[in-house]
């Protein structure tokens, strides 16, 4: 049973304040977890409560969320059986009383929810991937790894947020990492040689300086081939357009070439890329409210490209069900803090799988040293994981955790690589 719940303010990979929650059981077992934070957030996401006091951490401190954990949430949950995660998550949702968890803060609720999962796994003396779901999971995810970053994660850089690769030719999880390592380093050398490297973007990928989004494709393709891999077989491209970020008043505003495009014109740009380059997966190709283009795009490409809704679905089972009804996509990005409890996140993953769609478990651009999502990916047999680039410890801790899980699973570990893609509409 839960004896105490506590929280402190710690800092994420951008140095911004975030919340770490602690759950202590009567038998002395504890569990803790740190909440991540996005930059290119969708308008339908659960509410991240920040103090907004300009004198404190430029308004970004989370002391009110911490008070809510130590106050109302603690009072509600002390004495509860740690096995009752679903019941406790539901109690927090009801206690909050708003649609988007804005009263107590999704960061307060999620921190406690994740810490409860940890306390339970610690109490059972098992790893989190074994206790998050009934019976746990055995499927190691196919990684989607960023090579170059832009958008809201590298101001003034490229418009597209993530230029990533998926090693569809890899036969093991480790081989994916090795291939990515080779492409990543090859790309770094190329950018340096061409004088196009500005630094590192928020998720650890290169922050390039280019005049057009298309030049990025050329560099990426050159990096893959230069590293010795065949395009479209060994390695394929994956993009997160994060289009909501540059959509305004019915138009897509591309910074780089100073173009303002109608939905129809932007559709032609995106579909042109999909025909020209070996793109296996594309996320948020259109704004979360531009559903007509989502629908049209899924109809044209949904049987050969994974079309992921991130801002479109915000890990919200209701939005996923509507999206399935309307045939808007064929895949769902899964972020715990978009919805705010572990229970709702797992329900959303299961619903996605029941539809024959693919869930992609994802980190945020503001990440932490907590590898919770690696366990979530394996526990649910989700099959795919996206945590940013192949550098910086807040990213590497997630990739490395899968290696540890693989070691623990021994011969039970499964890897099916690109066979995870279903392209069901
Ligand atoms: P975010 O970016 O965490 O800034 O939202 C990640 C993504 O868009 O997938
Ligand atoms: Zn995204």
Automatic annotation (TrEMBL):
Pfam families: Enolase_C (PF00113), Enolase_N (PF03952). It catalyses: (2R)-2-phosphoglycerate = phosphoenolpyruvate + H2O. Binds a second Mg(2+) ion via substrate during catalysis. It is an enzyme of class 4 (lyase). The active site is at residues 203, 335. Mg(2+) binds at residues 240, 283, 310. Pathway: Carbohydrate degradation; glycolysis; pyruvate from D-glyceraldehyde 3-phosphate: step 4/5. GO terms for molecular function: phosphopyruvate hydratase activity. It is found in: Cytoplasm; Secreted; Cell surface. Keywords: Cytoplasm, Glycolysis, Lyase, Magnesium, Metal-binding, Secreted. SUPFAM superfamilies: Enolase C-terminal domain-like, Enolase N-terminal domain-like. Residues 137-423 form the Enolase C-terminal TIM barrel domain. Residues 2-132 form the Enolase N-terminal domain. (2R)-2-phosphoglycerate binds at residues 161, 335, 364-365, 386. It comes from the Bacteria. Its EC number is 4.2.1.11. PROSITE patterns: ENOLASE. Its cofactor is Mg(2+). Belongs to the enolase family. Catalyzes the reversible conversion of 2-phosphoglycerate (2-PG) into phosphoenolpyruvate (PEP). It is essential for the degradation of carbohydrates via glycolysis. This is Enolase. It comes from Rhodohalobacter sulfatireducens.
